[in-house]
Amino acid sequence: MSSPTPTAGDRVDIERGATRPGDKIFSGTATGAGVVILLVLAGVAAFLVGQSLPAITADPSEIQGGNGLVAYVWPFVFGTVLAALIALLVATPISVGIALFISHFAPRRLAQTLGYLVDLLAAVPSIVYGIWGAVVLSQAAAPIYAWLEENLGFIPLFAGPASATGRTILTAGLVLAVMVLPIVTAISRDIFLQTPRLHEEAALALGATRWEMIKYSVIPYGRSGVVSASMLGLGRALGETMAVALVLSVSNVVTFNLISTTNPSTIAANIALNFPESYGINLNTLIASGLALFVITFLVNFAARWIVGRSGAKA
């Protein structure tokens, strides 16, 4: 039975509904929330720029190290990006695999239990991850780093000398990977569960195996969501402080050697460790490095939105 065609009176009622007090309040609240976010973001940016100006305009000899602001900040930018990339490269494939297992392979009860455990991992404080990385993971990784130096030392990434304590940039990246994993897994799982059931059944009806159905129906549908989840995890890794600070000591170096005793540090860890006793131009220098981290995070999120937009347009 076909539904009746809307009359002119119905259209008038719909237009009146759009101007009801409740709709106006909701629209105004939503608009106000968006404006508040923009104001807070602008306020943070203005504060960082204002407090960074003395360091930006200072004579290079006044900056710690005596080589200027760029020379001081660049090694920490390098360490921040390197640790975050290690975390992303390790966590993303594992997270996607766990998400696919929970959404399409595991029995319902097991899937629910694993889902709760993944969500629980996201609630663990970062300092707990840092203690685990500094005490447990680093000690377990030290023999592996020695083996890598002995057998793969010809590769610059494992040139050594291997750290006897295991507290290296690779260990910090692995700790960040564990922290990022529940975020990427939870979002990817929800995206995969939203795949239209009709698409999956059509692929299976055409003779596809379960893996082929996932490859041609589920993964393409959730690609943009996985990219968004990965970028959100990358943002978490870029800004992490205590977990990295507990694993690494502050060293202003640039090196791709992942297992050496000398490691680059991150912007956030450097600020956390040096901020309490800093004053004057040194404080402005730390805030300037925070401005660099702010810009990096903004660019990462902008790139993520661009990638998701292109994926949606192609779909």
Automatic annotation (TrEMBL):
State which residue ranges cross the membrane: 25-49, 69-102, 114-147, 167-187, 241-259, 279-304
| UniProt cross-references to CDD domains, sorted A to Z | TM_PBP2 (cd06261)
Q: Where is it chiefly localized? A: membrane
The UniProt entry, under SUPFAM superfamilies, shows:
MetI-like
Q: Where in the cell is it found?
A: Cell membrane
Topology in membrane: Multi-pass membrane protein
Cited InterPro entries = MetI-like, MetI-like_sf, Phosphate_PstC, Phosphate_Transport_Permease
User: Sorted alphabetically, which keywords does the UniProt record give?
Assistant: Cell membrane, Membrane, Phosphate transport, Transmembrane, Transmembrane helix, Transport
Cross-referenced Pfam families, in alphabetical order? BPD_transp_1
- In its keyword annotation, does this UniProt entry include Transmembrane helix? yes
Per UniProt, residues of the ABC transmembrane type-1 domain are: 77-304
Question: Which family would the database say this protein is a member of?
Answer: Belongs to the binding-protein-dependent transport system permease family. CysTW subfamily.
- Protein purpose: Part of the binding-protein-dependent transport system for phosphate; probably responsible for the translocation of the substrate across the membrane.
Q: What is this protein called?
A: Phosphate transport system permease protein
Which organism is the protein's source? Kineococcus halophytocola
Its gene name is pstC
